[in-house]
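If you are new to this repository, start here. Below is one unmodified record pulled from the training split, so you can see the exact layout before writing a loader.
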Amino acid sequence: MLRIVNVIPGSKASELGFEKGDIILSINGQLVNDVTDYIVLRDAREVWEILNSRDKSVYEIEIERDNNFGLEFSEPKWHRCTNNCVFCFVDQNPPELRKTVYFKDEDFRLSYLTGSYITLSNISKRSWERIVSGLFSPLYISIHSLNSNTRQKLLGCHEKIDIRDKLIQLKECGINFHAQIVVVPGYNDGDDLKETLEACAEFYPNLCSISVIPVGLTCHRKHLVDIKPVDQKTAKRIIMYLRKTGEDNIRRFGKRIIFPSDEMFLIAGEKIPGRHFYEDFPQLENGVGLISDFMNSKKPAGEFQALFLTGKSFEPYLKDYLSKVKGALVLSVRNKTFGDSVNVAGLLTGKDIMDFLIKIKPEKTVYIPDICLNDDYEFLDNIKLVDIEKKLNISIKAIDKVTLDRLFS
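And here is the target side for that same chain:
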């Protein structure tokens, strides 16, 4: 059952008589447990049949997919992760960051809605029943290893969980899923990785894609398990194997389904592949193909006086992209908050950016990637973009790729 906490005035829901406090029992004959069911069932058909608890009335509604119907609900209580992964990035966060970055989620609903990865290692019977109902597809699953012993060590579980059985059930129920493998040297980087990838092929076509990602390590690992980073030699070996496996995919399935992350190529010092390598970019949000996708568009030219800031790993690519723009200066910001091993733009904090700008004293408008900020224009360390502008008396603009291209059009 799903309780309505607000009905937007003037909306279609308001016109039909929905009221605050009403409870939606079902949509199109299917029980509604929470807002996730509502979203899934709502998007499944253009005509809804909604059963309201107040008077047991049934509303038959025809609505456009993108139209806001006008109902608002409270946010569900998301399930927390109970694993103790040896490589967990949340455990490596510094103090005093945005509260949400310390929440470890392990919720199939968030996996479906936002593409967050789940291990399926501590899922309740009720949640599993909802998954295999077939409503939630695709899901995003952290496999890491199909060897139960290796997986248990990686996840820090008290008992072995055979992920293979769950993946078989997902396939039998027609549920699609994307997967990731975080490579942790000494755990799953050798024969274990090969055996896992070979075995994963049996789950195609429900297994849509697999990303292989080097473990991310910050400078905040005191009292945590000692882990070695993926070095250049290991990254090169993994990429060589993944290229071969990808070619096997193409022969067997007609397309590649296994992809090294951009970070893996950067560590290896190898050239980022062209767009064709990434098929339809199924794991773009997981850092797979981001650079290739960015560099695909035509380089701008002309004159534009501005300073563009980014992370160390992306600096050479942004410089190359803006190489024909006179007056465009590209610089990378050192990540002192997370440590020098963290080079992605999305983890730059307000303090690191502010300290950098104080040091260089820019006279141009400053552009930063919008992935550094949340919807309220706050950095991970709760510093607001507007506060940096006021303190330094400079103009700073957050932009994405589309906005960047428009600057020169």
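Two things worth knowing about this chain: The domain at 90-288 is CATH 3.80.30 (pyruvate-formate lyase- activating enzyme). The chain has three domains: 2-73, 90-288, 297-406.
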